[in-house]
Amino acid sequence: MQRSEVNYYLQHTREFFRQQDVHLPPWADFDVSQWRAQDREVAQEILALRLGWDLTSFGAADFLQTGLTLFTLRNGSPGGQPWHKPYAEKIMHVREGQQTPMHYHPHKMEDIH
Q1: Which of 69, 71, 105, 111 has a CA-to-CA distance to 85 between 20 and 30 Å?
Q2: What Enzyme Commission number(s) does the record list for this chain (predicted)?
Q3: Range of the domain at 41
Q4: Which CATH number goes with the domain that contains 26?
Q5: Which among 75, 84, 83, 80 has a CA at the least distance from the CA of 109?
Q6: How do residues 51-102 score in pLDDT, each as one tens digit?
Q7: Separation of alpha carbons 95 and 99, rounded Å
Q8: Does residue 54 fall inside a structural domain?
Q9: Is there a domain that residue 37 lies in?
Q10: Backbone angles phi, psi at 73, to 5 degrees
């Protein structure tokens, strides 16, 4: 998928979230200069726990048929160190007609919105 397509789908999801009155943290839309201005420890946690935007086709060829756009607000770290959270909190956007394969994590709970 081209970066321009990723950006298009992310923008569409941002608009959908706004219409649904879903509020994301300020860092959801940071640019490079805003990331550089952040406290290193906060930015390290966001990066290490893979928080933020994710767009996946689950390895399928057609994102609009099989895919998911999501924003991870909270996530546990492997082994629970240094950020112990045995759960994840994610906001997901599945488009009309799109399928998302079933999955689970045996060692983590997820709150799905």
Answers
A1: 69
A2: 5.3.1.15
A3: 3-93
A4: 2.60.120.10
A5: 75
A6: 999 999 989 989 999 999 999 998 877 666 677 777 788 899 999 999 988 8
A7: 8
A8: yes
A9: yes
A10: -90, -40
